[in-house]
């Protein structure tokens, strides 16, 4: 914990003070979601602090947003030191509500919230409740916010009370992620890779870890090249599978066609450079990379897992494929990369779909309303009471 952490805590005032308890500090979709939520919480109504497991770039980005950040170890079974720190922080900083992300953070937030007598909100970013989330909900009475339809009905099926459950889908900043004209300039992605301006370029964006299926993406390149010989692929992201993927690419003799970019800071620029995004995940909830690409006017080929079918309308703004089906993924990608007119049509539809259903401002406003309600700010909810999701809320 930084030595000056206690000096940077928000002052006590009439704002709602939220403590974001974040169970991981990597560069990932959940972390980006938290950052964008904090950006959109009105500073005149909210003060925000954060509890994270370690120092690093993520903690620094939160501080750059004006968030007070404290670190403490956050294993699945937290030590008394971490519990006492969190509870003391809640009491002495005037925290009204704890907002947890990932099961290990939910454990710590639930214990600290119980000790300090504060309500707890847990956002479930996965496509199913974990046993830990369910047990904590039942024992500590935490409110569960889920990001996809499948998780919502899974929670109901496990007996979660509708009054303690809400459906709050992810959203995308459609002003940042927007269609861009591509020009062959010295610093462009194709120029850096030594590729001609008209080379078809397939993209992958995500953490290189098993659940994201990057090995499926790599193995889909062969059926893609069998149909479109001059295509190339780029991988934006890093993770524990990178070394193994590089070896497999070398064994498949694809090293001249598949390019690793590592961590990419300017993801909006990345989507502006590729022609198509492939999401080959084995497990997802509401993946930001799919929504960001679609908001950028880039069509997607994505596995039909979790909440992905709620985002992608098959045959209208992209294609849905079975997890692990490398032949179908490669064929679908080849078809779109070879057909500029269909690609443009899908891309326009994709942009419109995100604008209508997954605009970040609307999604953040929904979370803001939930935070105010749970913190007991009655005046904020009298005019716009929370409602239970309707069938129309779950995009077909």
Helix-and-strand structural type: alpha/beta
Based on the structure given, which CATH architecture of the largest domain is correct?
Answer: 3-Layer(aba) Sandwich
Low-confidence stretches: 1-7, 378-392
Spatial strand arrangement across the major sheet = 3-2-1-4-5-6-7
Q: Output the CATH topology of the largest domain.
A: Rossmann fold
What share of residues is helical? 40-55%
Main beta-sheet annotation: 7 strands, parallel
Number of helices: 17
Shape: elongated
Query: SSE order in H/E notation?
Result: EHEHEHEHEHEHEHEHHEHEHEHEHEHHHH
Rg over CA atoms:
22 Å
CATH class term of the largest domain: Alpha Beta
The CATH superfamily of the largest domain is: Glycogen Phosphorylase B
**How many domain units?**
2
Name the beta content range: 15-25%
Overall mean pLDDT stands at 90
**How far apart lie the N and C ends?**
45 Å
């Amino acid at each position: 914990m930084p030595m000056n952490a206690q000096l940077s805590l928000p002052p006590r005032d009439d704002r709602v003070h939220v403590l974001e308890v974040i169970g991981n500090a990597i560069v990932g979709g959940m972390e980006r979601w938290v950052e964008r939520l904090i950006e959109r919480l009105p500073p005149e109504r909210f003060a925000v602090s954060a509890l994270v497991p370690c120092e690093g770039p993520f903690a620094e980005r939160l501080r750059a947003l004006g968030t007070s950040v404290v670190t403490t170890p956050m294993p699945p079974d937290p030590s008394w030191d971490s519990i006492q720190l969190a509870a003391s922080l809640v009491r002495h900083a005037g925290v009204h509500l704890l907002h947890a992300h990932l099961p290990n953070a939910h454990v710590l937030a639930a214990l600290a919230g119980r000790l300090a007598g504060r309500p707890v909100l847990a956002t479930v970013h996965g496509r199913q409740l974990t046993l830990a989330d369910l047990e904590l909900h039942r024992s500590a009475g935490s409110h569960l916010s889920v990001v996809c339809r499948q998780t919502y009905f899974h929670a109901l099926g496990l007996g979660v009370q509708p009054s303690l459950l809400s459906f709050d889908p992810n959203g995308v900043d459609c002003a940042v992620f927007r269609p861009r004209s591509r020009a062959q300039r010295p610093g462009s992605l194709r120029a850096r890779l030594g590729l001609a301006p008209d080379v078809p370029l397939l993209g992958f964006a995500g953490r290189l870890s098993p659940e994201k299926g990057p090995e499926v993406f790599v193995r889909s390149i062969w059926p893609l090249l069998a149909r479109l010989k001059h295509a190339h692929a780029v991988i934006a992201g890093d993770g524990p599978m990178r070394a193994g993927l590089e070896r497999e690419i070398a064994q498949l003799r694809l090293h001249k066609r598949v390019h690793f970019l590592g961590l990419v800071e300017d993801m909006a620029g990345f989507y502006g450079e590729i022609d198509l995004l492939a999401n080959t995940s084995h497990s997802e909830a509401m993946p930001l990379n799919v929504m960001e690409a679609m908001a950028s006017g880039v069509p997607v080929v994505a596995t039909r897992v979790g909440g992905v079918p709620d985002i992608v309308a098959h045959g209208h703004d992209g294609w849905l494929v079975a997890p692990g089906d490398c032949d179908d993924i490669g064929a679908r990608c080849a078809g779109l990369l070879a057909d500029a007119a269909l690609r443009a049509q899908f891309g326009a539809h994709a942009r419109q779909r995100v604008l209508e259903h997954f605009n970040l401002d609307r999604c953040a406003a929904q979370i803001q309303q939930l935070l105010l309600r749970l913190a007991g700010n009655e005046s904020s909810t009298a005019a716009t009471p929370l409602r239970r999701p309707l069938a129309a809320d779950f995009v077909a």
